[in-house]
Design goal:
Length: 334
């Protein structure tokens, strides 16, 4: 083995450092982490989606059966009708867990291109929990559900602006569930609207069944981290959908969609999958410090987070509606 002089080592180190500095000066992006997207980078209007979130919260608390919930329902129905949808209400009644009184509820169903031979649907719950029962200061305080309730609705209100012009053979529905968490501390029931929808789907199967469904819940967190919900990954019928959406997010540079399995979340996708056998994945950021507290307010949500989720779903829908042509593998030619 030949011994290398100290001077030679010094020269080599200087050269390496010089090359590294020059490389960083010429190609700084090669040394940076993942590019941080801004609202200007994203062809989805997150600012307008955020305004919808604020408007929803402006109705105040929106528990099932309340006047605010009724006003919000009318607002949503008019919004989707203005975008060319056929809108219907799927009404049902439940018993109040505390006093046994009848509580009217209704899912909002908006449909575009009902005559097409393929269908997908997006869904979210639009009720709020009656009280912020995890709040450290006032468990009977005011709960407006900015993230847990309004965020998924806001994304779908903005996403729906693309549906009338959707090309291909795909029709699309938006379903907003009532009664997702009609809970008074430990008394009440979850998933009332989605359970009713699933049972109606089984009782009266549609002429064109859904190929896929996507559930949005708590997607507005300013510190967005969307892991792959465990049930959605475990179910063999929904795993390809998860892989497709998260893979597309990666290609778009939306790194908030994280390719790792996250928590097992009990959510509206459970009755949809278990009762109606629908292939529905849940997109949810369950790591939200203001969950079920009075602090779940618009200030803790982000237009950029809404834009990222909306953009990924917009791209997914348009690619699903009009499948991409296979890549040219070369060879041949005239």
């Amino acid at each position: 083995m030949r011994k290398i002089s100290g001077q030679a080592v010094y020269v080599a180190v200087v050269l390496l450092v010089s090359v590294a500095v020059l490389s960083y000066a010429i190609w700084p992006e090669a040394h940076a982490g993942p590019r941080r997207l801004t609202l200007r980078d994203i062809p989805f209007n997150g600012t307008r989606a955020y305004s919808y979130l604020r408007q929803a919260c402006g109705f105040g608390p929106r528990p099932s059966g309340s006047k605010a919930m009724s006003l919000q329902r009318q607002w949503l129905a008019e919004h989707f009708k203005s975008l060319g949808a056929e809108v219907s209400l799927q009404s049902f009644t439940v018993r109040h867990p505390l006093d046994g009184s009848a509580v009217p509820m209704a899912n909002v169903v908006a449909r575009w291109h009902p005559d097409r031979p393929r269908r997908v649907f997006f869904c979210a719950h639009y009720d709020t929990r009656p009280f912020p029962d995890r709040d450290p200061h006032n468990r009977r305080g005011k709960f407006v559900g900015a993230n847990d309730g309004a965020s998924g609705v806001a994304v779908l209100m903005e996403l729906a602006k693309r549906f009338s012009a959707l090309k291909g053979e795909m029709g699309v529905d938006v379903v907003l569930f009532d009664g997702e968490e009609f809970m008074f501390e430990e008394r009440g029931e979850y998933f009332l609207g989605s359970t009713h929808f699933a049972r109606e789907y089984v009782a009266e199967p549609p002429a064109v069944p859904y190929e896929w469904g996507v559930l949005l819940d708590m997607v507005g967190d300013s510190n967005l981290r969307l892991y792959q919900e465990e049930n959605s990954v475990t179910w063999t019928d929904t795993r390809p959908l998860v892989q497709e959406i998260w893979g597309l997010a990666r290609r778009l540079g939306v790194h908030d969609f994280i390719d790792r399995t996250g928590p097992n979340v009990r959510d509206d996708h459970l009755p949809l999958h278990e009762i109606a056998k629908l292939s529905v994945c849940d997109i949810i950021d369950f790591d939200y410090p203001f969950w079920h507290t009075q602090q779940d307010s618009p200030e803790h949500c982000s237009a950029l987070s809404l834009a990222k989720v909306g953009w990924v779903l917009q791209e997914w829908l348009e690619r699903t509606a009009v499948p991409q042509a296979p890549a040219d593998t070369g060879g041949g030619g005239r």
